[in-house]
Amino acid sequence: MPIELIHQTIAKSHCQSQRQRKLPAHLVVCLVIAFSFWSKAAMREVLKNLVDGLSVQWTRLAQYWKVPNSASISEARAKLGCQVMRQLFEQVVRPLATAETPGAFLGGLRLMAVDGTLLDIPDSKANARVFGYPGTRFGHQAAFPKVRLVLLIEAGTHLITDALICPYRMGERRRALRLLRAIGTGMLLMWDRGLHSFAMVQATVARGGHYLGRVPANVKFEVEQVLSDGSYLSWIYPDRKSKKKGATRMQVRVIEYTIDNAQQPEQQQSYRLITSLLDRQQFPALLLAEQYHQRWQVETTIDEVKTHLLGRKVPIRSLKPREVVQEVYGLLLGHWAVRSLMVQAAQLEGISPLCLSFTGTLHVLRRAVAKFQVVSPDELPLFGVG
Fold it and tell me: pLDDT higher for 161 or 265?
């Protein structure tokens, strides 16, 4: 994330300070991203880690920078808002896999996956009012409000290429439809049965993409034509809302298969997939069945975000909704920083980025932050000192 891009984003959001401050906006942006690198540390400790490498240069210039207290950091975050982080995320993230990236493409189509997850946030009145609590059995209230996060990832790199943050009460399926804005020609989108709908199929095809999605057990398909690989052609019909808008049935290819458990035969698991890839010669049923399980890369990505970047019991620190959104975008940008570096390193060695350790890369970055702050004296101070 070039510092010039951060400055441009801040300027567009009109939150640039007119005078030099101890905590200028660009430093606050870096701090919010750094929360994910040192998730268990307090805000002041994260800030100390972030600027630790500058202390050598300040000593040479006989300058001193006193670390602001937590109240000042919170005030600076409130002034920054969440739009800067959102706009920076939208400008930075993009697919990075090339044709040489192992496992990133299938028949020339870039493998993408969509799914959602939930993050616990602090139990404040403001957070509860905006984001809401999940329902529980017997009418009890959950311990924490939750924010819903729906992600679109590049399966071959684990890069999050788009995301939507919303209250818990907003359904995952509705938000996944909005993420299709990032789908285009040359992409194969995979989703689980919870996201199946005619609208998903129609919108993906309308944007020039292809799809490979699992279907719930209660959805039935008539067999129109059985193909030589065991799959068959059928139709998916529009729901009532789509039908009112003039939508008509669309042809699909259905693939059914069962995964056997040799040790526990009674635990067989059946899958039913639908796809827009009708060419059984280029995309045989067995190949698509094998590739569908690449969709689980999105689950691994979610684990990287929630477990490895965030080691806190309540992942998000903020008591106010705007700062919650700000912090979640910082978390996503932190994941981007780690994963994009892994992609670059893997490309140099000609291997898959998935062969590299996410936690190992995170540890390297933590150690390297201070070393990369050795700059020439004319570039100092980066922010107000005193």
Answer: 161
